[in-house]
Design brief:
- The protein contains 1 helix and 14 strands; from the N terminus they run H-E-E-E-E-E-E-E-E-E-E-E-E-E-E.
- By secondary structure, it is an all-beta fold.
- It has 2 domains: 85 residues, Translation factors (Elongation Factor Tu (Ef-tu), domain 3, Beta Barrel); 85 residues, Elongation Factor Tu (Ef-tu), domain 3, CATH 2.40.30.
- Strands 1, 2, 3, 4, 5, 6 and 7 form a 7-stranded antiparallel β-sheet that branches. Strands 8, 10, 11, 12 and 14 form a 5-stranded antiparallel β-sheet that branches.
- Strand 3 and strand 4 form a beta hairpin.
- It is flat, with a radius of gyration of 22 Å.
- The model has no long low-confidence stretch (mean pLDDT 90).
- GO terms for molecular function: GTP binding; translation elongation factor activity.
- Keywords: Cytoplasm, Elongation factor, GTP-binding, Nucleotide-binding, Phosphoprotein, Protein biosynthesis.
- This is Elongation factor 1-alpha.
Length: 207
């Protein structure tokens, strides 16, 4: 401005004033695996992003949905050892007596003593059809990307159509849904899948 007086913060000051978001460290541990490596002299090392909770060396963890229990020997980030990993940390951790063949991308480790993760035989989800040629009815089996898992899930039952904005039911047990529709659907995974409720663990409750 050539004339007058400008008030307020400069851009850099405004950015510096932003407070970091609160991390969900109080929730149970959830860490979807992105990859698994075998490192000579160390052993099996899964990698993933801590979504909720805290991971520490010595923790007894269970991998869902395979239900494999083991102990965390060490945790590291960017080749630096960590005493604890918190949400937002992309970490590798070494586990005892587990073969690389037993673990895979999409598995979710959690603390075996604090609300451990489990596989879901089926789950209910809100589905919005953005763009699909033709109609979708019971039996349709798309591949879902839920956290790091990539698994085909069958539309076992389309329970109701709902309004996209309000979430209110508009039709019970519709025969089919099409582009632009939102519906509550019961889904059955073709392979074991770890999925959580969106209210409790948002990163593991959307796809």
């Amino acid at each position: 401005r050539k004339k007058g007086k400008a008030e307020g913060k400069c851009l850099i000051e405004a950015l510096d004033a932003i407070l970091p978001p609160a991390r969900p460290t109080d929730k149970a541990l959830r860490l979807p695996l992105q990859d698994v490596y075998k490192i000579g002299g160390i052993g099996t090392e899964p990698l993933g992003l801590v979504e909720t909770g805290i991971l520490k060396p010595g923790t007894i963890i269970v991998f869902a949905p395979a239900n494999i229990t083991t102990e965390v020997k060490s945790v590291e980030m960017h080749h630096e050892p960590l005493q604890e990993a918190v949400p937002g940390d992309n970490v590798g951790f070494n586990v005892k007596n587990v073969s690389i063949k037993e673990l895979r991308r999409g598995y979710v480790p959690g603390d075996s003593k604090n609300n451990p993760p489990k596989g879901a035989a089926d789950f209910t989800a809100q589905v919005i059809v953005l763009n699909h040629p033709g109609q979708i009815s019971n039996g349709y089996t798309p591949v879902l990307d839920c956290h790091t898992a990539h698994i085909a899930c069958k539309f076992a039952e389309i329970k109701e159509k709902v309004d996209r904005r309000t979430g209110k039911s508009t039709e019970d047990n519709p025969k089919s849904i099409k582009s632009g529709d939102a519906a509550i659907v019961n889904l059955v995974p073709s392979k074991p899948l770890c999925v959580e409720s969106f209210q409790e663990f948002p990163p593991l409750g959307r796809f």
